[in-house]
Design a protein that fits this description.
Chain B: InterPro entries: Ald_Oxase/Xan_DH_a/b (IPR000674), Ald_Oxase/Xan_DH_a/b_sf (IPR036856), Ald_Oxase/xanthine_DH-like (IPR016208), AldOxase/xan_DH_MoCoBD1 (IPR008274), AldOxase/xan_DH_MoCoBD2 (IPR046867), AldOxase/xan_DH_Mopterin-bd_sf (IPR037165). Chain B: It comes from Dictyobacter vulcani. The complex is a heterodimer of chains A (292) and B (816). Chain A has 292 residues and is an alpha+beta fold. Chain A is built from 12 helices and 14 strands. Chain A has 3 domains: 47 residues, 2-Layer Sandwich (Uridine Diphospho-n-acetylenolpyruvylglucosamine Reductase, domain 2), CATH 3.30.43; 116 residues, 2-Layer Sandwich (Uridine Diphospho-n-acetylenolpyruvylglucosamine Reductase, domain 3), CATH 3.30.465.10; 112 residues, Enolase-like, domain 1 (2-Layer Sandwich). A 5-stranded antiparallel β-sheet of chain A has the order 4-5-10-6-7. Chain B has 3 domains: 262 residues, 2-Layer Sandwich (Aldehyde Oxidoreductase, domain 4), CATH 3.30.365; 231 residues, 2-Layer Sandwich (Aldehyde Oxidoreductase, domain 4), CATH 3.30.365.10; 172 residues, Aldehyde oxidase/xanthine dehydrogenase, molybdopterin binding domain (Aldehyde Oxidoreductase, domain 4, 2-Layer Sandwich). In chain B, helix 18 links the parallel strand 27 and strand 28. Classes of the chains: A alpha+beta (292), B alpha+beta (816). The interface between A and B is medium-sized, with 25 and 35 residues. The structure holds flavin-adenine dinucleotide. The site of flavin-adenine dinucleotide (FAD) has 30 residues of chain A, from strand 2, helix 6, helix 7, helix 8 and strand 10.
Chain lengths: 292, 816
């Protein structure tokens, strides 16, 4: 379990990193927190010739509360986000999702952006980004583009990011103040990737019915999955048991048929997904009612 | 003499060092000029080796040596069969490197030595092996099928051994009993997974013509003896040291693992030290495993819940080779009767070869299977007769006045399975109290009203521990007053440096902190076997005790001479030696050690003090008269038990099951344990805690899942789930002490105990929690997916299970 040889580069400014990527293209890999990349290197599942370590690019180290969204620079650790006062105050759903990630030691190293780019379908943050219609800011030597979450995740560990691009920033929209939210997941052990999980945001009308809803899932397909159909079903309802039951039922069909491994068959994942739907919506709904 | 340290909760001597990061594990050893090795392993479970081309690997700069089987010369010998047995008619052991055929994924095929481990692994990728895949035996079902492929061409039916044991007349009783049930019970593979994998550093010293090996092993002395024979060296020219060992759990008692021969071979060939460290990926496919068994059990009982007879026909998965004989299934066979008065019992076991990692004992070593079977039986009797589960057990217990109890079977050590002592009801009573058993039914009913499913499970076991043949120890008082103890047993976390120190401290009137215990270094102590089978504290501890008693006598004799008093009047306390009633005129142990060496030259403060004291002058005549046969205050002690002593215990737990998801959590866990006289309750509790955690892992988290080509699917810690602190409940440990009459201090072993009843208990608790669905657990380990599947089946059928032949339902949808 030792990586094959690679060249290690640790540029201090973004342009230098982009220049390196320009030269090396697919022969290079970006190293952020290393919590996913280093294990892959050690078991020789990836063998890049160049490792571009962006941890010294100080310009990527910021948490910025902007008008419409929270912006997190690419080398910000998950743990820093978790401990950030502004995030704690204004984005509790992000905190709830982040604390499900591995263990504190892992969050001390792992970055928010790294988790998004790694695009593990069982990871919390990609699903959160989808749920909120967040954005990914990517830079290459030719310029910057902003990618919508919906357009980013294409397959298992695969995104639309180009090998010459660096993600510089993740943008997570704020929730409306009256919204209720929740993230729940089923794992074998505390800190494991989810067998199935769901994230939901529901916004009530003053009359106490559901004005809008968002729900996304992780661990159930090759990418994070948005439950658009379920979102529509919920509008105008009070999320009573019958509606939750219907939503749970609809959620089962989102589970990829052949997604079967030693921990969960697709049948079991469907059951977990249904249960996650019930629980996440119930909790989210309770939270928004508590507020008003 | 008042016992002061034995039985006290003494803090561990090893902790200050280990907690400060001053431990020394094999990988910490870094010798000048050292090279690094890596092993090429078979990717096939069964294949012919057609050709191996190592040219490119040998040519890689930085590579020093590439070995395949044909390079090994006379060292290319199958590993010794450690424990032969007449029933083991077709033993097969492994070559250090496979020659014509590989029989499991992970079998060693080539060995590379290079400047660094990185380079060595690069070189592995350059070795080109042409394999011709052969049909694979991936399970006991395949192995036992009539037209099964053969793991070893010349072993018909894959049968390595057929072991039959019986007592009484089970056939007749089964034929005539009022109630007879037959069930299939199954346990699948798990593995030890010590935190430290295996590893070895070997150094050949040209000047001394000496081979030194640091190995993460439980058995340095047997390895030393073997290496001396393999490499034609005198035993004193081979030194094997087990330094700090980060867990063994049985897997490291095995010898020889190929690397334990290849690394010394390489160092002798190259004249430079060589290190090989097993990484976790290798550990999953090359360190021995355990637990795969399939039991067809038939049992009879009467209307009062008394168990009348058991016939247990089982298959044991021994993997591709039988290096450790059939110890595991023998233990299963002998452990099945447990604490019960089983008078009619037949055990019929076939050990079958499969194309998987070889099997040798892993903590529990066949006992968890036996306890699973027997405790399932007890629960079933209770269910059938609508009796209380604990009451059924009570009706079947061997009573305290019936010891010694002969089970009537031949144990793993070749001796009788004879329980030396025990008090099974007392432990059960303690458990009942600690679990608040009598109120549980009410609590369970209340919870169900809220949609919560609680279940209570128990598991009772008797564990054969402390087997022979023997262990030894050396005890010596140093001139600085500290006491040096050396023994052949290793420590892989058991606290030997504390408990042996306590035993010596009591004899010599010193504090345990003043005793330095060396374990696992063949140069420090030369005789012995190793740490396994819950035997070190009892067998080596008794030897330490006997040696310390001898040293005490020597101290008393010498002091009597010096103080011109009688030996019986000499007292030892607080590191001093004096005549009873006159502690003001005392010698320290160190001063006495100086006096015990009749030299003209003496050094240091103690020597000056001695000179100033008015001690009796040396007698005329020889400095060492016949009654003092040797200088110094030292002695060896050896202890050889007549047969094993039998510890016992009962665990109980309350769990909660979420029927929607199959997720389970432990709410309460109580272990009542009887290992005879406790040397140190803290240490015993630590052993039990660790065992329970491992047991919970083995029952609900850890699974070695092989596909039908015998590829391991759970081969990383992402998939092989070791429970963490978050999954393990608080564990209450309570003690019963029924001393063993077999050894001087009345001890029994405890090392494996914690793990043994957990699978049985878990099944029992699940049945109880899910009783509304009439679930009957017949397999271990379980996992939420499988549990959910069982629940779904039960929800569909809704019917009560039929009584006749019952098997664990075949997984319906690949829920492995
Ligand atoms: C024991 C353990 C448990 C874990 N449990 C969980 C869990 O429960 N949930 C979960 O979501 N995750 C879990 N993780 C993974 C963890 O969240 C990782 O930190 C995360 O997936 C990757 O972030 P990183 O900063 O470490 O990225 P790295 O490992 O450094 O990189 C990951 C990938 O992203 C690329 N990359 C990283 N940053 C950029 C960038 N700015 N631009 C372009 N490409 C980039 C890298 O090239 C690489 O391909 C766990 C990890 C471990 C070791």
């Amino acid at each position: 379990m030792k990586p094959p040889q690679f060249q290690y580069c640790a540029p201090g400014v973004l342009d230098e990193a982009l220049g390196l990527l320009d030269q090396c293209g697919t022969d290079a890999k970006i190293l952020a927190g290393g919590q996913s990349l280093i294990p892959l290197l050690n078991v020789r599942l990836v063998a890049p010739l160049y490792l571009v370590d962006i941890n010294r690019v100080a310009a990527l180290d910021y948490i910025d509360a902007r008008e419409n969204h929270l912006a997190v620079g690419a080398i910000v650790r998950q743990r820093s986000v978790e401990q950030s006062p502004v995030v704690r105050q204004r984005h509790p759903l992000l905190i709830e999702a982040i604390t499900y990630i591995g263990h504190m030691q892992i969050r001390n190293r792992g970055t928010l952006a790294g988790s998004i780019v790694h695009a593990d379908p069982a990871a919390e943050l990609p699903a959160l980004l989808c749920c909120l219609d967040g954005e990914i800011v990517a830079r290459s030597s030719t310029g910057e583009r902003i990618i919508k979450a919906e357009q980013f995740f294409t397959d298992y560990l695969t995104t639309t990011l180009d090998a010459r691009e660096i993600v510089t920033e993740i943008r997570l929209p704020w929730l409306p103040p009256q919204a209720g939210w929740a993230c729940i997941e089923f794992t074998r052990r505390a800190g494991d990737y989810a067998l199935a999980g769901a994230i939901a945001v529901v916004v009530p009308t003053p009359a106490g019915t559901c004005q809008s809803a968002r729900i996304s899932y992780f661990g159930i397909a090759a990418t994070p999955v948005r439950g658009y159909e379920i979102e529509q079903m919920l509008i105008g309802t009070t999320l009573d048991d019958a509606i939750l039951q219907a939503a749970a039922h609809a959620a089962e069909s989102l589970v990829q048929d052949d997604l079967s491994d030693i921990h969960a068959t697709s049948t079991y994942r469907r059951a977990l997904t249904a249960e996650a739907t019930r629980r996440v919506l119930r909790t989210a709904w309770q939270r928004c009612q508590n507020r008003s | 003499m008042a016992t002061r340290w034995f039985g006290a909760p003494v803090q561990r001597n090893e902790d200050p060092r280990l907690l400060r990061g001053q431990g020394l594990y094999v990988d910490d050893i870094d010798l000048p000029g050292m090279l690094h090795a890596a092993v090429l392993r078979s990717p096939y479970a069964h294949a012919k080796i057609v050709r191996i081309d190592t040219q490119a690997a040998s040519n890689l700069p930085g590579v020093h040596l590439v070995l395949t089987a044909t390079d090994l010369g006379e060292v290319l010998e199958p590993s010794p069969l450690l424990i032969p047995h007449p029933a083991l008619t077709h033993p097969r052991t492994q070559l250090p490197l496979a020659l014509h055929e590989v029989r499991y994924v992970g079998e060693a095929v080539a060995f590379v030595v290079a400047d660094s481990r990185y380079l060595a692994e690069d070189a592995l990728e350059l070795i080109d092996v042409a394999y011709e895949p052969l049909p694979v035996v991936h399970s006991l079902a395949t192995a036992s099928a009539p037209d099964a492929p053969l793991v070893h061409e010349d072993v018909q039916g894959n049968v390595a051994a057929h072991l039959l044991q019986s007592v009484g007349n089970p056939d007749e009783v089964l034929a005539n009993a009022p109630h007879v049930i037959r069930e299939t019970l199954q346990m699948e593979r798990g593995a030890a997974m010590p935190m430290e994998c295996r590893g070895i550093v070997a150094r050949w010293d040209h000047y001394e013509q000496m081979l030194t090996c640091w190995i993460s092993t439980q058995a340095p002395i047997p390895i030393r003896n073997g290496l001396a024979a393999i490499f034609h060296l005198p035993e004193h020219k081979v030194r094997v040291i087990a330094p700090d060992v980060g867990g063994g759990f049985g897997a490291k008692i095995m010898l020889f693992y190929p690397e334990e021969i290849l690394t010394p071979f390489a160092t002798m060939r190259l004249g430079r030290p060589v290190k090989w460290i097993e990484d976790r990926r290798e550990n999953f496919i090359s360190t021995n495993q355990e637990r795969g068994q399939l039991h067809e059990v038939e049992y009879a009982f009467d209307d009062q819940g008394v168990l009348l007879a058991v016939r247990d026909v089982f298959l044991h998965d021994t993997g591709a080779y039988t290096p450790y004989g059939i110890i595991v299934p023998i233990i299963t066979s002998c452990s099945l009767p447990g604490p019960y008065r089983l008078k009619h019992y037949a055990s019929d076991c076939q050990a079958l070869y499969t194309n998987k990692v070889p099997v040798s004992p892993y903590r529990g070593a066949g006992r968890p299977h036996a306890v699973f079977v027997m405790e399932r039986i007890m629960d079933r009797i209770a269910l059938e007769l609508q009796m209380d589960r604990l009451e059924v057990r009570a009706r079947n217990f061997i009573r305290p006045d019936e010891f010694p109890w002969d089970v009537g079977l031949v144990y793993q050590d070749g001796g009788p399975t004879r329980y030396d002592s025990g008090n099974y009801q007392a432990a059960l009573d303690k458990l009942k109290l600690a679990l608040d058993y009598d109120t549980f039914a009410t609590r369970q009913a209340e919870a169900r009203v809220q949609g919560r499913y609680l279940g209570l499970g128990i598991g009772y076991y008797v564990e054969g521990t402390s087997i022979g043949p023997y262990e030894g120890a050396h005890v010596r008082v140093e001139p600085d007053g500290r006491v040096f103890v050396a023994t052949g047993v290793t420590s892989q976390g058991q606290s030997h440096q504390t408990v042996f120190a306590q035993i010596v401290a009591d004899q010599l009137g010193i504090e345990p902190q003043a005793v330095l215990v060396a374990t696992g270094d063949t140069q420090a102590f030369n005789w012995g076997v190793g740490t396994f089978a819950s035997r070190a504290a009892t067998v080596a501890g008794s030897a330490v005790h006997l040696a310390a008693v001898k040293v005490r006598k020597k101290i008393q004799a010498l002091a009597a001479e010096l103080f011109e008093a009688s030996a019986e009047d000499i007292e030892l306390a607080e590191g001093k030696v004096f005549v009873k009633g006159a502690p003001q005129r005392a010698l320290t142990l160190g001063q006495l050690a100086i006096k015990a060496n009749p030299l003209r030259y003496t050094y240091g403060e103690s020597a000056r003090t001695l000179a100033a004291m008015n001690l009796a002058a040396a007698r005329p005549g020889p400095a060492l008269p016949p009654e003092r046969d040797a200088p110094g205050l030292e002695a060896d002690g050896f202890y050889s038990p007549p047969h094993g002593s039998f510890a016992s215990g009962v665990h109980g737990a309350i769990i909660e099951v979420d029927p929607a998801t199959g997720m389970v959590s432990f709410i309460k866990y109580v272990a009542v344990h009887d290992c005879g006289h406790l040397i140190n309750p803290l240490v015993v509790e630590g052993q039990v805690h660790g065992g329970v955690a491992q047991g919970i892992g083995g029952a609900f988290f850890e699974r070695l899942v092989y596909d039908d080509t015998a590829q391991l699917l759970s081969s990383t810690f992402m998939d092989y789930l070791i429970p963490t602190a978050a999954e393990i409940p608080d564990i209450t440990v309570e003690h019963i002490e029924t001393p063993s009459p077999l050894n001087p201090l009345g001890m029994k072993g405890v090392g494996e105990a914690g793990v043994i009843p957990v699978a049985a208990l878990f099944a029992s608790a699940l049945d109880d929690a899910l009783s509304p669905w009439h679930i009957r657990i017949r397999e271990m380990p379980l996992h939420p997916c499988r549990l959910h599947e069982l629940l779904q089946e039960a929800r569909c059928h809704k019917a009560v299970l039929p009584l006749a032949t019952e098997k664990p339902g075949a997984p319906t949808e690949n829920c492995h």
